[in-house]
Amino acid sequence: MTIFGWDMSHYDAPSIGSALSEGISFITHKAGGDSSSGDSELDEWWSNVKPLALNNTLLTGTYWVPRPDLYPSAAGEADRWIARLDAACPGWRSAPHILQVDAEIWGGDSATKPSLAYLQRLCARLRVLMPRLVPIVYASKGQYGNALNGLGYPLWNANYPSSTKTGFKALYSRVGGDSGPGWTTYSGQMPKIWQYGSSASIGGQTTCDANAFRGTLAELSRIVAPGWMEEDVALTTDEIAAVAAATVKALTTNVDFTDEAGGFHNPLSDALLNAKQVPGPDGKRGYVWPLLSLIPNLATAAAVAALPTAEVQAIISGVLAGLPAEQAQQIISGVSDEIAKRLAS
Predict the structure, then answer these.
(1) CATH class as words, domain 3-227
(2) What is the pLDDT of the chain when averaged over all its residues?
């Protein structure tokens, strides 16, 4: 089975028209990134699709255009993106969401093109901020080739074999369908989504960006929003010990928590504070984080690192014991990844 998607911007009207009845299953909209203005219709678009997103009729998301030449801090771009969503898309955290990182070169200037390291920092920060989601990187084979080996995140390819103006399903057949040229391996992986044209008709609009995913909507959701797809499963004793040990190792390592802008930044604190606000899979139940009350001065990395290793591990084990396995592992993985990158830089 193949499902279809539409990524929109200010070039499109904010209404999706008849897209759903035509067979569109997922839609993303530009949230910003390349400038501090523009895409002011994001809130209007969200108001149109929000009911569909919240009742799981449509998988929605947003994309951000990172410009390292304008904004050198990759982590800062992740922060700006999430802040933009919170401001323009109230309720977006209550449903699965596609975080589409739009990596391209602009005006032929190589300085505008995000590097592998920049994209990894951006995605790692997004994982910390939104641990139930996994970013997908829109970076074409034509522009990146094998330069994204080791990226660690799924790819979204762009390849337009035809400029014929027609319906999105007819266009997909014209360009080869499930055997088309956009489905080729690069940078060590097969792209999960193929943007196969920018001349498709969708929902009564023309010159639309059309995308395909070879699988079901549930399968796509497991890739981009795995935290929404897992049942609550208690961690085993061995899993608790392994995750706690890895976290202790990260916490008790001498880490410089100065962020790229020169300010103080504690990724563990950020992750926990954010996770406290994340609803459970039923969209209503919130997770309880007793670690926040057990260590009131968590905001200082030095205070955490000064605790005896055994004490830290005992506290973390106690917290993880009450968490679903997927949620706990996503939080710790995102935090550990960011700490590891800071140590390596």
Answers:
(1) alpha beta
(2) 77
